[in-house]
Design goal:
Belongs to the dsrC/tusE family. The chain is mainly alpha-helical and 106 residues long. The protein has one domain: Arc Repressor Mutant, subunit A. The protein contains 5 helices and no strands.
Length: 106
């Protein structure tokens, strides 16, 4: 598949069920990020958060959730910024995970 499914005006998938790991990498390419095991662990937990709470996590809940679920990764805002090469951590992690933009993001 060479094209992405439908995206909204902010570059997020319109339908989160269209997400695949290949689509995640295509979305990550826009940030110059090559997804590796650690990225996919984080993305998997972000998608689990969405399934549980029915909304995309903003930065603080995202970090708190990841710290609890992935203690071995030593998650912090700074680490997420480095991994995903962005200061807009929640926005871009959710976008790569195929989820809507968190409600409080610009």
């Amino acid at each position: 598949m060479n094209h992405l499914p439908s995206l909204d005006d902010d570059g997020h998938l319109k339908d989160h069920t269209d997400w695949t790991p290949k689509i995640a990498q295509r979305l990550a390419d826009t940030l110059g990020v090559t997804l590796e095991s650690e990225h996919y662990q984080i993305i998997s937990e972000v998608r689990a958060f969405f399934e549980t709470y029915h909304h995309s996590p903003s930065t603080r809940p995202l970090i708190k959730h990841l710290m609890a679920r992935l203690p071995n990764l030593d998650i912090s805002n700074q680490k997420l910024q480095q991994l995903f090469k962005t200061g807009l951590v929640a926005r871009h992690v959710n976008r790569i995970a195929g989820l809507p933009k968190p409600p409080n993001c610009l």
